[in-house]
């Protein structure tokens, strides 16, 4: 998957959404650190966060 910055996502959101609709996936980074994978629905991919010991999205 292509890595793009949070700034690139915000600046070119319509084009990135079109690419996702066409099957592209992206890894969004902030300060060079991968934050999230964006993939089209229907594409199967399992993402495991090995840095978290629970399933809460807020860490509580």
Automatic annotation (TrEMBL):
InterPro entries: YefM-like_sf. It comes from the Bacteria. Belongs to the phD/YefM antitoxin family. This is Prevent-host-death family protein. It comes from Pseudonocardia eucalypti.
């Amino acid at each position: 998957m292509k890595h793009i910055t949070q700034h690139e996502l915000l600046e070119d959101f319509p084009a990135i959404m079109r690419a996702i609709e066409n099957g592209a996936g992206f890894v969004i980074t902030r300060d060079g650190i991968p934050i999230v994978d964006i993939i089209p629905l229907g594409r199967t991919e399992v993402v495991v966060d090995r840095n978290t010991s629970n399933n809460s999205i807020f860490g509580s």
